[in-house]
Amino acid sequence: MSHSITRQSVQPVPGGPASGLPPSSASRGDAGGKPSRRPSPTARRQRRAALLFLAPACAMVAVYVIWPILSTLSLSFYSWDGMSERTFVGLANYVELFQAPTFYTALKNNLIWLVLFLLAPPAGLAVALYLNQRVAGIRFVKSLFFAPFVLSGVVVGLVFSWFYDPTFGLLAMMLGHGVPVLGDAHYATFGIVFAALWPQTAYCMILYLTGLTSLNAEQLEAARMEGARGWSMLWHVVLPQLRPTTFMAIVVTVIGALRSFDLISVMTGGGPFESSTVLAYYMYDQAIKYYRLGYSASIAVVLFAIMLVYIVWHLRRMLRAEH
Question: The CATH number of the domain where 294 resides is what?
Answer without folding.
Answer: 1.10.3720.10
